[in-house]
């Protein structure tokens, strides 16, 4: 669960206070997710994708996983993470702040132009400035739109790619949480694991 929270926490990164390099207050993106694990000395790769909706005004982030058929909603006012799959709903504590700007103590590690002249300008930062104690890096465009993230754990690496980022929220119902509120479920790991990843394409 910790790793999953870490992944989801990143999604809070791209929003904070008024100054500095900040993402739009509302944006959506198709997020590609790849997880590479060493299992008995062999590399195992799993992939999935999600539609992310980020709304700093509502203080909510939603991720819809169409392949797995579930949705996550992070509510930063209520400090809850909701997992919604059909009629199943679960809520777990989500005590993190919502972030909108690149932190001032983030180190700019590299700047480069993807693909070369006329390509996409990308700035790379250390992940621990965004996620305390996590190893990895994050990439943003020079307009502070997220491009990608790599997160290194002891035995696996998780990578996220943000594509087709658009501003605004097309369908605010992605943030809806069933009422009465979800029951607390401390065993959320068992729900998420089978939902999260499909085997990679051969
Ligand atoms: C990636 O794989 C590891 C090891 O199997 C797993 O613990 C982790 O939860 C996976 N990452 C995500 C985002 O689920
Ligand atoms: C950056 O500053 C934040 C807030 O003061 C702090 O939580 C975080 O640990 C710092 N990160 C690094 C890499 O110094
Ligand atoms: C991403 O955006 C491009 C340009 O609008 C569009 O042609 C493409 O179909 C989009 N891709 C996906 C997977 O939505």
UniProtKB/TrEMBL annotation:
Keywords: Signal. GO terms for cellular component: extracellular region; lysosome. It holds the Pfam family Ependymin. One of its GO terms (biological process) is cell-matrix adhesion. One of its GO terms (molecular function) is calcium ion binding. The gene is LOC109467469. This is Uncharacterized protein LOC109467469. Residues 1-18 form the signal peptide. It comes from Branchiostoma belcheri (Amphioxus). Belongs to the ependymin family.
């Amino acid at each position: 669960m910790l790793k999953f929270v870490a992944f989801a926490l990143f999604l809070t990164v791209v929003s904070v206070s008024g100054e500095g390099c900040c993402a739009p207050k509302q944006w959506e993106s198709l997020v590609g997710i790849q997880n590479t694990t060493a299992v008995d000395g062999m590399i195992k790769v799993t992939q999935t994708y999600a539609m992310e909706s980020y709304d700093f005004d509502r203080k909510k982030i939603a991720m819809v996983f169409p392949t797995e058929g579930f949705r996550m909603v992070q509510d930063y006012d209520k400090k809850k993470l909701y997992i919604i799959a059909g009629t199943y709903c679960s809520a777990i504590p989500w005590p993190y702040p919502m972030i909108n700007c690149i932190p001032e103590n983030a180190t700019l590690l590299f700047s480069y132009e993807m693909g070369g002249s006329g390509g996409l300008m990308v700035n790379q930062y250390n992940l621990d400035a965004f996620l305390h104690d996590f190893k990895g890096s994050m990439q943003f465009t020079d307009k502070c739109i997220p491009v990608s993230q790599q997160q290194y754990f002891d035995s696996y690496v998780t990578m996220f790619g943000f594509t087709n980022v658009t501003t605004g929220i097309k369908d605010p119902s992605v943030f809806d949480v069933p009422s009465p509120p979800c029951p607390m479920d401390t065993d959320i790991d068992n729900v998420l694991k089978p939902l999260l990843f499909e085997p990679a394409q051969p």
